[in-house]
Fold:
Amino acid sequence: MHRFYCPDIAETLTLGEEDSKHCVKVLRMAEGYTIEVVDGNGMLYHCRITMAHPKRCAIEVLDSQHQSPHWGHQIVLGIAPTKNLDRIEWLVEKCVEMGVDRIIPLRCHNSERTVLKTERLKKIMVSAMKQSLKATLPQLDELTPVEQVLAEPFAGTRCIAYCDEQLPRQERLTLASVYQPGRDVMVLIGPEGDFSPEEVQAAHEAGFKPVTLGESRLRTETAGMMAVAAVHALDMAAHIQNRK
Structure:
């Protein structure tokens, strides 16, 4: 069944213009067809089309249900946007597909991108949410100074990954040894030029645990995806172990 996104569908009973066009003109759906609509806040609506208008497709709600994220805890990724915007767009898409609650674009000392327009990223997130059959749209922050994120209260595990060989590598632990499955987690990934020594020190002083994502030096977007994938893999392993 085709899935659409409309944040105020319960009040308007009408799809937005973009989804209406896709529904009626592209998919050629008519009155009486059934569709799914999510509001991005966890609600999934099973609906029937009552007016197949290409600009304001009207529906009636047949039933609804709350669809919580399957991982059940907060996964937050703070990452410095890459100079090549295509790479950060790819990262955002894949992280939403896997499952993430919040993405914080970081502005760091070595950032090559100091301006970020989030409109296109939000559209990519909506598409990935629908494609992966989720009902909750992750939060996407505006570009945020890393110092502000370091000072932000966060009750879960806070980690920072970096690869500068001149920084204390021996102090870093694997993400698997630091992360407690099922607990809220925040992971910070630096820019192509890595976090500065001052930023790493500030993170240490703020209580962030230094972690490594393996022996390979990864691109920024690869490291971000690997961090989110590792959290889900560790959650799954713990779930399987608990069922034995």
Notes: The chain has a mean pLDDT of 93.
